[in-house]
Amino acid sequence: MEDPDISQASGGETPASRAGTTGAGRSGLDQRRILDAAVRFIDENGLRMLTMQRLGAYLGVEGMALYRYVPGREALLDGVVETVVDELFSDPHVHLEAHSGWVDYLQRLAHGLRRIALAHPEVFPLVATRPPAAPWVRPPLRSLRWIESLLGVMTDAGFSDENAAAVYRAFSSFLLGHLLLEVAAHGVETGPVEEPDVSPSEDLSDYPNLQRLEPHLSVDAAAEDFEEALEALLDRVALLLPRRRRPARLTKDK
Amino acid sequence: MEDPDISQASGGETPASRAGTTGAGRSGLDQRRILDAAVRFIDENGLRMLTMQRLGAYLGVEGMALYRYVPGREALLDGVVETVVDELFSDPHVHLEAHSGWVDYLQRLAHGLRRIALAHPEVFPLVATRPPAAPWVRPPLRSLRWIESLLGVMTDAGFSDENAAAVYRAFSSFLLGHLLLEVAAHGVETGPVEEPDVSPSEDLSDYPNLQRLEPHLSVDAAAEDFEEALEALLDRVALLLPRRRRPARLTKDK
DNA sequence: ACCTGAACACCGTTCAAGT
DNA sequence: ACCTGAACACCGTTCAAGT
């Protein structure tokens, strides 16, 4: 009744599926087109500006027309999340098959998701907080195909079922925390258009440490932090394997 | 103009401040009372049910009455986040002064925030995603007082300014990722009231690894995961200190 | 001084009606 | 087959009016 899964086309009668041709009506409307437009709209105008009527206008249509292809606003947002996460499939730097070992695999997956987060900073909070379909679907890796893939790679590499699941959980937490904070920092600089008014950086007189450390806190070390934390996580994961099977040079030598 | 800081009472003329007595009008209305009621309302009914009119009714008042004490809905939400995070100050297990070393301090802080997240699972996504006031205010540790406190403890313990800032960033990412995923998992079990219909756990026939690992994925290991990841983070942080000053038994002996 | 009624602009959603 | 106009219930917010 609520949140009917969008784009799971199994049995779902969409106008396009009925029409024989993959084509569209006179307005070129289409579920794919609507979801893609929604992503672009959020990228350009921010999540809070997305409204059924405005998205309709963005598509040259009257807003209620969207309900022919989308069950409602909630389902639309679910579709937006799915659309954005699915970009991982077409990322040339993240080849499912062409990885050399689980370390390489997890690194590519992590960087692929980071690229998505940075490409859609306004969408990412949605990826992070939308209630998942199943309890074990953890943001930001919300695709069954990728979870399956990750678990397969890990178990093939010699991790026990328990450990593979633990790695999946740790990996999700790491990605979610880092990426959500990185896009939030991105947003706060370009975000609310307020004039600094009188105080250029508020009143920090009561906070001497904050005041002294402000230069250190304001530098954007997101990329380095991400890399370091990822390496630390991989080191920790490697310890789950019997010594013999551990990849050799995990501890950076640079 | 937007998001005027609530409860920063400096110069803000509230009815209570004008009335001499700390008391209230005939309805007992009050900014504190409104924010506390909003938190309770979200705890009980969920964030998406919170509306000005419903919150008004919850307080026995007409909804527009709230605008006398709160600039608007956005500011109300900011106030809710601040209210919940401020619970850390009155947590008896998290004493600012009575800590023995930075390890103990970070552990107490982490567990205090985890307690808050679990106490208000419906509020926490708000804590996680509300745009922070300054770029270096990172969720979920959104209080200037606590950031100041953390930086002070770390530098006093011998960490450089750069390293103290790095620890603050790593600590925030760790907390955000773990706690957001933990409350999300909590919500998905009690969340949407759907009937399982026909398929008790969807169709996993195309995902053999998922299918086989489902028991491992469904167990709630949040507490253990949190503890382990926290220990790993503390170990990693300790390496930033010169060997001499490192706390002795960080690697668990259990 | 504090709350309410009425009003405004906007929202999501449904459905009969147009083409 | 596809889109729109009109309608409904609900929002956030403002403000003159009540007590």
UniProtKB/TrEMBL annotation, chains A, B:
Keywords: DNA-binding, Transcription, Transcription regulation. PROSITE patterns: HTH_TETR_2. Residues 51-70 bind DNA. SUPFAM superfamilies: Homeodomain-like, Tetracyclin repressor-like, C-terminal domain. One of its GO terms (molecular function) is transcription cis-regulatory region binding. It holds the Pfam family TetR_N. InterPro entries: Homeodomain-like_sf, HTH-type_TetR-like_transc_reg, HTH_TetR, Repressor_TetR_C, Tet_transcr_reg_TetR-rel_C_sf. The keyword Hydrolase does not apply. Residues 1-27 are annotated as: Disordered. The keyword Transcription applies. It comes from the Bacteria. Residues 28-88 form the HTH tetR-type domain. Gene3D superfamilies: Homeodomain-like, Tetracycline Repressor, domain 2. GO terms for biological process: negative regulation of DNA-templated transcription. This is TetR family transcriptional regulator. It comes from Actinoplanes xinjiangensis.
